[in-house]
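Appendix B. Extra example for self-study. Work through it before the problem class; the solution is given directly after the inputs so you can check yourself.
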Amino acid sequence: MIKFNLFVLPFSLGLIYVVYSIVIHYYRWIKSLPAVDKVKLANGLRTPSKVLASLKEIFLEGLIHRKLWKRNPLLGYMHMSFALGWFLLIVMGNLESRIYHGAYINAPYYPIFLKFFIHDRLVLFFEIFTVPAFFRFIMDFLLLFVLSGLGLALIKRKQSQWFGLKRTTNHSFFDRVALSCLWMIFPLRLLAESYTAGYFGGGGGFLTQNLGNLLIKISPGPAESIAYIFWWSYSLALGLFFIMMPYSRYMHIPSELLLIIFRHCGIQPKKWGSSFSDLELHSCSRCGVCIDACQLNFAAGISDIQAIYLIRGQRDQYVPENIAMTCMLCGRCQEACPVGIKVDLLRLIKRREIGSGQVSDFSYLTQSYPGFAEVVYFAGCMSHLTPSIHIAMEGIFREAGVDYLFVDRGGSTCCGRPLMLAGKDKQSNELIEFNKTLIRQTRARLLVTSCPICYKVFREEYNLPIRIQHHSQYILELVREGKIALQSQHRKVVYHDPCDLGRGGNVYDAPRELLRKISDLMPVEKECADALCCGGSLGLMNTTLQKKDEVTRNALQFLLAGNPDILVTACPLCKKTFVKHSKTEVRDIAELVHDAIPGRQIRKIMDPQKAEAAIP
Amino acid sequence: MENSVIVIGGGISGMTAAGMLALQGLSVTLLEKEKETGGHLARWDRLFPDRRKASEVLDFAREGMKRVNLVTGVTVTDISRQGREFTVVINSPIPNPQSPTPDHETVLKARALLLATGFDLFEARKKEEYGYGIYNNVITSADLEDRFKLKKGILTSEGKIPARIGIVHCVGSRDEKVGNLYCSKVCCVTGVKQAIELKEMLPAAEVFNFYMDLRMFDRHFEELYYEAQQKWNVNFIRGRLSECAENPDGSIIVKTEDTLTGKPFKITVDLLVLLTGFVPAGSTGDIAGMLGLVTGTDGFINSADSHIMNNSTDIPGVFVAGAVKGPISIGEAIADARAAAIQLAIYLNSPTPADD
Amino acid sequence: MIDFGYTITKDRQLDYDRGDMRYYRLVQSLEPSVDVCMECGSCTATCSAGQFTEFNIRKAHTLIRRGNTESIKAELRKCMFCGKCQLVCPRGVNLRNLILAMNRAIELLG
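Solution. Structure tokens for the complete assembly:
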């Protein structure tokens, strides 16, 4: 017969509540999936390879916390000790309880509070290698493992930089309550088990027994009552933690499991939000990695708008407009997120809620006959403010003998992405349709653009039946095909990854390969997926100029640390933004390539005195 | 070598102040980084508002410098202060027959310093959308002065006589996008002066000045503006250029808004002149760093008080004159240099300054 | 129409005393940099929409600041949001957010 005591009630009620709550959540998330995704989920769950892959990821990310280990070993260990330690405590506790009670399923509280009910003495040296002694050792070891993580968590509050975190999250009320419970659970368990073991002189392992013996000596008083109070407190802490869980960040534990399964079944987030996005919101552990990744935080001192606060606000059904709109959408936090949440998309979903109601009127746009060509070149709005870029591109086209058409020579119709970044997707469709018609009319087989912003939207939203390339990719192809020959100028250059080309378009290698052919490319501290935003992002809606300037100056510090001759980028907006603050020359990769073509048609550079002298 | 005063910078301010100080019997050394004195003034053909020859002013200043020990082609590498004495290290020797070692550091001593490092012209390439260095027929106002001085007429890069010329005000000034919020003060009147000179040379040409505000702040400036309109028929368009493009024939398409009619305004010109503004001289920052002098956020030196201690700095014995403190016209620079010379002489004559 | 021998002409002056400043106050709270405009017109000059329509971003916000919002409500819908205006503004006005703010004000105040 299983033993019972009143103090197990808080734990048991809490457990019932949290299990009920998780089931309801799971049911809602799965039920409100779009039909296509439901099919994907059902198929995925019937595919052993997908289930295995999910389980593997759950083990590696949910228990081991592999991504956090990579980021900082101390941080990884801390999370692993909690997750893996607690998980093994539950598994081992259940196994241990079987020894004393043979039922197939024990009451859930029984293994948790086993040491309250079982405290027989094991005789040293004779019974040490018995099965119960083995479990007592393991259970104490695991408790110590979890407690070591708790110790680190306490240190992290004061010394977060040791964990690779500059700033810790500013937690909400529910999070604080849940966190306090969580932190109390294991010390209370230690004290309860130790006192009981000390009082009965048996039942504990190397940790609890020795500590218990010591505690009894220090305060011999009513040891049984003290132990009983600790058992109650332990149960209360557990119960309260479970009740708080659905309202706190700890909901991420069950949510992330489902999220991993969803992902392995091929379910994608939707543009206008879906239950997948809702699941993502609940899967955020509020670890604060996104705060550290954010340039608005570390360069401009804005620390209340990061993804973590957006997500928390979304979960609580209230996001101040400020949080939705103050973000460069550079993608750095998304890249750093250990849970892999598509943070920028979540923010855009919020912006769409705000911006979709407003009306636009583009009836003034009229198509004109663009002409035919093999390659259609779309410089983009911004490139008209950096004429060196499109002049260089035209020079390269001519040099390579390409049949091209500069379709927006007289001025561009916007590609539509800037509207989308403001949440006005519906409005941008009209511009997208307009440009699609324009591009289709040229009958080109390839679309080349100089603007990464255009490049991203052309690829993701235009559904054009032709190839789309950023000019860095296109030029590299011309070089590989031998259409243009290049001669290195051997200047020291650094390359800045534009957000929409790098993280947004996954184009990291083409510009670098090209630059290695024509210059001496130097590495910089933060590059590729970790590259910084220039600060000029069109995603940032409502920040003061001073803050933007701080972001730009900070990015330049990293880029120019090695004293390069030229700062090279591949985006007209980055170029314009950097020119304001850079003492070093800023150029686009196309300009550099154009300069590196031997025997190209050199434009006359104005020297007024010589020009005048040449006049008879 | 013992000096009473070292003047750094041989533009109009430094020359004037050095001359004034030498006239008072002080031993003055003037250090100039270029081979010749004269600074930016040496590049000018004629001066506003009366279009007198710039060389006359320069000759006058050079005349006054006869007793000044002039050292050109040197840069200051270090400055230190010991009590009331300054030690200035320069990177090349003073042309002295006794020690003709080239490229050698020379140490000078002085009891007072006068900073007159002036300004640099804004690098017009930074406004890429205006096309300087990209389109051949976009030049700066300084380039135009060069052409005026050459006296060979004004032609486009294709050798054509320009039928239409644009003059763009506020290039590199009043522009947050290049980090310069301040007004360069003299470009407005320079633009009007150059418009008139262009009309004098090319009466058939149309001249358009693109301005945001016309700041005709000094005596006879407004009259010059009036003359440009009434006598020379210069057109004034109130709007800032957003961008330029080049036609195949080399002419320049200018985009602006005619803010007075409220419509976008497009015009093709054969020659476009950019009135580039003042930026602090590169050497100003270096020397301010050596001395620990305070510069404003704009990079110009802050004097001890903007009204009553206009030529002094927070460091006793260090004085400032001219465009090192911000944009200033030639006439003002001369007056300011003379005031600085008097302030400096008073300082040297006072036996124990209160603040020392 | 019946000819009464006289007509009523709409007053075309900007009557600041009767102006509706609610729009401006809201816009200003949403984008404070509206106040630093010096009316240079470079935004309008570079505007991708401005060459085809009457949409004039400089005039639009100036009219709102003068208490006259009615005439520009339809015009504001023509902005493509490309951000060129913001890139040329010599005073660093956050023009894209300013347009959002003006649209928002019209959405909220009618």
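Self-check: The helical segments of chain C are 22-30, 42-46, 57-65, 84-88, 95-109. If your reasoning did not lead you there, revisit section 3.
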